[in-house]
């Protein structure tokens, strides 16, 4: 083979390997942002100035959906696309190991929060509601925790994530067979069955049913990420511009309308009637179609912004967004501890915004310090 062809082949191979191993920085930045908003919403110390970012958790779609979608996308890339040349048992074992790890972490956290609450804080108004009665038999509490019929603490999404990852090897096998449409069809059918029949979700564990659609949609997207990006770039530039402008405009308009509906309600009480009338169509637990559609639109806008302005965002906010985004499950777990004790120390928000702001910054600072010092990072999943 001629020397120049050999060199080109080596460069192409290196480029392919680099592409497989490289991270998508926009995903890290966006996931870091989602985590910060989740932490702020879990604190709820308003007024603090941060409600301009979170809108007090009153929007018709939340960063929680974005966190789950991104988790599915990243998992589809890391365990799907990047390991496509490996035997199926390699990523399957890694997924099952991850599921077990998250299951154990979720159960341990629930029990730790329960025992701490029982021992020291049952009379503290800042104790998170939902803790089992102290006189309930321990065997019932343990059974509830191990079967996820008892959900308590600030890391409740871990149990959803562990269940989805436990099922994901089946989805991965279908994707490897070129049958990703079956994954989406099965996932959408389960979601649709709950939505169309208005099935009441009796407890938080039942959120597994509708929310799996977001996760597995992300998983399919991540597995096919390279194909999707190639398809996008195959569209004529002018058409891409029209699509981007149209989607962004619609996303901005709907977001602004929702923000006005929330923030202007204290001034115009009649807006509360409109919000109450719309709320059933945007229920967080059941994820009806309007909420999913609105979330998809807003997620597109968020990804476009973080991808388009990646360098600028990294320059000014990368110091916190990147470590949070690259260690998302660790940050989520650590935040559960910090927020749990923060509410016990400061059960109610202060009337002074400066105190609320200081308390919020302290919580974020503690989580950030834990990430930078890698506190218990060998034990807590990343």
Describe what this molecule looks like in 3D.
- Mean pLDDT is 90; it is low at 1-21.
- 73% of the residues lie in helices and 0% in strands.
- The protein contains 16 helices and no strands.
- The chain has a domain at 235-300.
- Helix 2 (25-43) packs parallel to helix 15.
- The protein has helices at residues 3-21, 25-43, 51-54, 63-81, 89-121, 138-146, 157-176, 180-196, 208-223, 225-234, 237-263, 270-278, 289-308, 310-326, 328-345, 353-373.
- By secondary structure, the protein is mostly helical.
Summarize the structure.
The chain is mainly α and 382 residues long. The protein has helices at 3-21, 25-43, 51-54, 63-81, 89-121, 138-146, 157-176, 180-196, 208-223, 225-234, 237-263, 270-278, 289-308, 310-326, 328-345, 353-373. The longest helix has 33 residues, at 89-121.
Keywords:
382 residues; mainly alpha; 16 helices; 0% strand; disordered N terminus
Total DSSP helices: 16
Shape category = globular
- For the terminal residues, how far apart are their CA atoms? 46 Å
**SSE order, as H and E?**
HHHHHHHHHHHHHHHH
Q: State mean pLDDT (0 to 100 scale).
A: 90
Helix fraction by DSSP (H/I, runs of at least 4): over 70%
User: Which consecutive residue ranges, at least 5 long each, have pLDDT under 50?
Assistant: 1-21
Coarse structural class: mainly alpha
Per-chain topology:
Blueprint: H1 3-21, H2 25-43, H3 51-54, H4 63-81, H5 89-121, H6 138-146, H7 157-176, H8 180-196, H9 208-223, H10 225-234, H11 237-263, H12 270-278, H13 289-308, H14 310-326, H15 328-345, H16 353-373
């Amino acid at each position: 083979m001629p020397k120049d062809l050999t060199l080109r082949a080596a460069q192409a191979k290196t480029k392919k390997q680099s592409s497989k191993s490289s991270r998508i920085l926009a995903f890290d930045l966006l996931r870091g942002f989602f985590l910060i908003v989740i932490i702020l919403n879990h604190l709820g110390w308003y007024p603090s100035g941060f409600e301009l970012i979170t809108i007090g958790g009153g929007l018709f779609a939340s960063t929680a959906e974005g966190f789950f979608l991104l988790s599915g996308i990243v998992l589809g890339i890391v365990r799907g696309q990047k390991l496509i040349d490996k035997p199926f048992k390699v990523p399957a074992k890694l997924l099952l190991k991850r599921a077990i790890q998250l299951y154990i972490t979720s159960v341990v956290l629930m029990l730790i929060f329960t025992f701490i609450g029982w021992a020291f804080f049952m009379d503290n108004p800042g104790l998170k509601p939902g803790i089992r009665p102290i006189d309930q038999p321990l065997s019932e509490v343990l059974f509830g925790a191990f079967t996820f019929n008892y959900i308590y603490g600030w890391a409740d999404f871990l149990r959803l994530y562990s269940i989805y990852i436990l099922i994901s090897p089946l989805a991965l096998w279908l994707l490897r067979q070129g049958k990703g449409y079956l994954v989406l069809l099965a996932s959408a059918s389960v979601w649709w069955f709950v939505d169309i029949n208005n099935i009441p979700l009796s407890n938080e564990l039942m959120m597994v049913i509708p929310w799996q659609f977001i996760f597995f949609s992300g998983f399919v997207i991540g597995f096919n990420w390279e194909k999707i990006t190639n398809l996008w770039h195959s569209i004529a530039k002018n058409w891409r511009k029209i699509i981007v402008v149209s989607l962004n405009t619609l996303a901005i308009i709907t977001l602004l309308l929702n923000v006005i509906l929330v923030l202007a309600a204290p001034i115009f009480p009649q807006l509360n009637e409109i919000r109450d009338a719309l709320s059933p169509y945007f229920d967080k637990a059941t994820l009806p179609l309007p909420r999913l559609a609105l979330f998809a639109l807003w997620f597109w806008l968020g990804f476009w912004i973080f991808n388009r302005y990646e360098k600028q965002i990294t320059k000014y906010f990368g110091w916190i967004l990147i470590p949070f985004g690259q260690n998302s499950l660790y940050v989520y777990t650590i935040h559960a501890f910090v927020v749990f004790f923060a509410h016990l120390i400061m059960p109610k928000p202060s009337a002074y915004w400066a105190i609320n702001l200081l308390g919020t910054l302290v919580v974020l600072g503690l989580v950030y310090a834990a990430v930078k010092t890698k506190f218990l990072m060998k034990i807590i999943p990343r």
